[in-house]
Design brief:
The structure holds 2 protein chains of 2 kinds. Chain A is mainly alpha-helical. Chain A has one domain: ABC transporter involved in vitamin B12 uptake, BtuC (Orthogonal Bundle), CATH 1.10.3470. In chain A, strand 1 and strand 2 form a beta hairpin. In chain A, helix 1 packs antiparallel against helix 11 and helix 5 crosses helix 11. The longest helix of chain A has 29 residues. Chain B is mainly α. Chain B has one domain: Orthogonal Bundle (ABC transporter involved in vitamin B12 uptake, BtuC), CATH 1.10.3470. Chain B has a two-stranded antiparallel sheet. The N terminus of chain B is likely disordered. The chains are: A mainly alpha, B mainly alpha. At the A-B interface, helix 3, helix 4, helix 12, helix 14 and helix 15 of A face strand 1, helix 6, helix 11 and helix 13 of B.
Chain lengths: 341, 368
């Protein structure tokens, strides 16, 4: 039981990172921008929040937690949105290819983040391990009264506020895309920019805004990873990159609907973490007893493939069924050049 | 775009160019590269306060400072070029093979498996088996998305992207299986004592064979794309699938055949990386080259010679930036950052080659 609770907790924290990434990417993709720079902007968001908070915490003896949180959020959003702006300028204004530009953004973002993540200590004059404990604890604070409600409290209320913010954001994004005028305009652009343009929608402006704001939201995922998942430190491994690609996978898994990212993200979390909680068991099916062996370090690696394989299966099934509402936006990844219609 | 003043031309108009003399196009790209180098030097200067001229000197000596350094630069250029060659036919067909990273890795895993399990074979046979195995592995990894693309029109960008991570986990599995020494979580140098399955030195040059293999592939691909019937079919499918169908080309067949070739050459890249360079395998054997090569192939418009120039530029920057980073005890990721900046500039410069900016004439006389 305890290990099941731990698995759910790990899955929810993990899922929150990719939920931010995926919701942001859905907003961008709905406008027709296939931004493969998601890992890059998540990197940018993560490192910018860390740097911002690091300088603030080091500049005062008594850092205020609320200011810490605000600095982290603002830095992450702005840095990631700036990444999105580079992408938008190159693909929308200069009409560069989206796939290539997105991949370049990923290379750039991972370079910037890992460079400063690894060198910040040195550049700041050798202050030792980079750690923003005050901010991290603010991000991880849960409400004590609710947390003590037994296992329900542990499953539902043991997290920092970003976990709930992600859910609210996903629901809000869903409503925005299906109910608001701006959301409908945005989807029209993603389906057929030519018609949207003819209907008087400012295609360029919408695409810019959707891509930049979407990137900013994805960047919050990177920030959440740094502040909660790694507890306010920087690890120079490629984890954010693989999480970023998982966020891209989640967009497909959620068939471009933000509300589906909520359960999809947690499911990915469970699939990703199940190896750590897997125990040798015997399943009695009545006529036969299945023996499920314990995982070795080797088979753990195979287990970690599951989220990606599930995504591939979803991709194949949705393309096979050809149902209109399951398809990606019609003009996804295509450039729009008014004079070329 | 501004609708405030109707019936007036916008200040800036964009029109497509019909074409640009090659020399001028290269001039524009050259300017982009120079601008990006200036920006990179400025970034380096801001971080380490190093004199920009010294930055370039250090970079050159980092990439070509000694015969050994030069050969490693050449080796890595060849490796990147090889992946670019692999991707060119797929991209020309407008099939977004983002899965090179995974295809390289499975090729590398196949190579390592042969080196470990078949070391008793005679050398020539061992190499034949390794080459066939790495080709088969890479081709298989590319075949899956191609089949589904041909059959259900499944989005290949996302499919191949996911296959990368399946390949990475598969590689991690084999790394754990072949771990040596136990507990290190690395495979270590394979056949360190016997050098079985290692590329032999030619004329005393350790990496000359890498150059020869990639040069053959480059020339072969150039001819394949420009002169063969297959190459023509690829071009037609890439331009318009409907035209291809009308002309009696089996689009499915072309997609599958081209992706098999693309994956196979990626598999060979994995073979080069393991047999011809690192002699070990890890999840980072491909090292992001699968992604970088996408940009190389795209920017070069699938021309193998241009690809060589871009590959060399990128590898030079990588080695150069690493030299600066290690001088100041900073980390290697500086090179990725610089690579990103340079690619942004080159990507942006394509606009000025393909399009023309027309400024509104002042008195609207010759504006029209």
């Amino acid at each position: 039981m305890d290990s099941l609770i731990s698995l759910i907790q790990a899955a929810i924290i993990f899922g929150t990172v990719i939920m931010f990434g995926a919701v942001g990417e859905i907003i961008a993709e709905k406008s027709g921008s296939l931004n493969l720079g998601v890992p890059g902007v998540m990197y940018l968001g993560g490192i910018a929040s860390l740097i911002g908070v690091f300088f603030y915490e080091n500049s005062t003896d008594n850092p205020n937690q609320i200011i810490c949180v605000i600095i982290a959020l603002v830095c992450a959003f702005l840095a990631a949105a700036l990444g999105g702006l580079i992408f938008s300028f190159l693909t929308i204004t200069l009409r560069a290819n989206q796939n290539v530009t997105g991949l370049t953004l990923t290379i750039f973002g991972s370079g910037v983040a890992n460079f400063f993540g690894g060198s910040l200590n040195k550049l700041a004059g050798g202050v030792g391990q980079i750690s923003v404990a005050t901010t991290s604890s603010a991000f991880r604070a849960s409400i004590p009264a609710l947390y003590n409600l037994g296992f329900i409290g542990k499953i539902l209320f043991s997290y920092g506020f970003m976990v709930y913010a992600a859910i609210i954001l996903a629901i809000f994004a869903q409503r925005f895309l299906t109910k608001s005028r701006a959301g409908l305009n945005l989807r029209a652009i993603g389906e057929n920019p030519g018609s949207a343009d003819a209907a008087g929608i400012n295609v360029t402006l919408y695409k810019y805004l959707a891509t930049c704001i979407g990137s900013g939201i994805s960047g919050l995922g990177g920030m959440y990873y740094v502040m909660d998942y790694t507890k306010g430190t920087w690890a120079n491994d490629a984890t954010i990159e693989s999480l970023g690609w998982l966020a891209v996978a989640l967009v497909i898994f959620a068939i471009w609907k933000p509300r589906n990212t909520i359960w999809g993200a947690y499911l990915f979390g469970i699939l990703y973490w199940v190896y750590a909680f897997w125990r040798e068991t015997n399943v009695d099916l009545g006529f036969i007893t299945l023996h499920l062996p314990a995982l070795t370090r080797r088979t753990q690696e195979l287990f970690k493939m599951i989220p990606y394989i599930v995504t591939i299966i979803v991709l194949v099934i949705t393309s096979h069924r050809k149902k209109k509402e399951y398809q990606p936006p019609e003009a996804l990844g295509l450039p729009y050049f008014r004079e070329e219609r | 775009m501004s609708n405030k003043v109707l019936n007036q031309e916008p200040l800036l108009r964009i029109t497509k160019r019909d074409g640009m003399p090659k020399l001028r196009a290269w001039g524009i790209r050259g300017i982009a590269v120079i601008l990006s180098l200036i920006v990179s030097a400025a970034v380096i200067f801001l971080i380490v306060k190093m004199n920009p001229l010294k930055v370039y000197a250090t970079m050159v000596s980092g990439a070509f400072g000694s015969s050994r350094k030069s050969w490693i630069t050449v080796r890595d250029t060849m490796m990147l070029l090889c992946v670019g060659i692999a991707l060119a036919p797929a991209f020309k067909m407008k099939f977004w093979n983002i899965g090179a990273e995974g295809q390289i890795l499975v090729g590398g895993v196949a190579t390592a498996a042969c080196m470990i399990y078949l070391q008793s074979l005679p050398t020539w046979l061992l190499f034949v088996v390794i080459i066939l195995a790495s080709i088969a592995a890479g081709a298989l990894w590319a075949l899956l998305p191609a089949l589904f693309k041909a059959k259900y029109n499944t989005n290949e960008t996302l499919f191949t992207l996911m296959m990368n991570y399946v390949a990475i986990q598969l590689t991690s599995y084999f790394v754990a299986l072949w771990e040596n020494p136990y507990g290190s979580n690395t495979v270590g140098i394979i056949n360190k004592a016997t050098n079985r399955g290692w590329f032999p030195s030619i004329f005393g040059k350790q990496y000359l064979l890498n150059v020869i293999i990639v040069a053959v592939l480059a020339v072969g691909m150039y001819i394949y794309l420009k002169k063969s019937k297959h190459g023509y079919e690829i071009t037609v499918v890439g331009d318009s699938e409907n035209t291809a169908r009308y002309a009696g080309i089996s689009v499915k067949k072309v997609i599958i055949r081209t992706m098999l070739i693309s994956g196979a050459i990626c598999g060979i890249s994995g073979f080069l990386a393991v047999s011809g360079a690192s002699h070990t395998i890890s999840a980072s054997t491909a090292g992001g080259r699968g992604f970088t090569a996408i940009i190389v192939a795209w920017l070069a418009k699938f021309n193998t010679i241009t690809m060589f120039v871009i590959s060399l530029l990128l590898v030079f920057l990588e080695k150069g930036a690493n030299a600066i980073a290690s001088m100041y005890h900073l980390n290697d990721y500086a090179s990725k950052m610089i690579t990103g900046i340079i690619l942004f500039f080159i990507l942006g410069s394509e606009f000025f080659i393909n399009y023309k900016l027309i400024v509104r004439a002042k008195e609207n006389k010759e504006g029209k």
